[in-house]
User: What shape does this take?
Amino acid sequence: MKLWPRRPAPARPRADHTRIAVLEHDLLGIPPEPGTAAALTVALRRAGTCVQHDPVDVTTFGDPQPSAMCSRCSTCMVLDEHGRWTPARANLNQA
Ligand SMILES: [Zn+2]
Assistant: This one.
């Protein structure tokens, strides 16, 4: 027995596939598929507006080595053997 007509269920918000792919890249390190909007987003972010990194020391007492973060593009940076701040990913690739 229907007392009044039911309203249709509101459309559930759909997850944005580009945002999911970018979050997967940021949090899990999964590279987005080439040629997608997510790949373009990540590539443009890497190009960014950060011409020269501006490291800010974020080392805590528990850290085994000094670490920093760029105040412009938030790239994680570490000290290299010459005492210069370099992006942390560059060091991981060399190892
Ligand atoms: Zn930077």
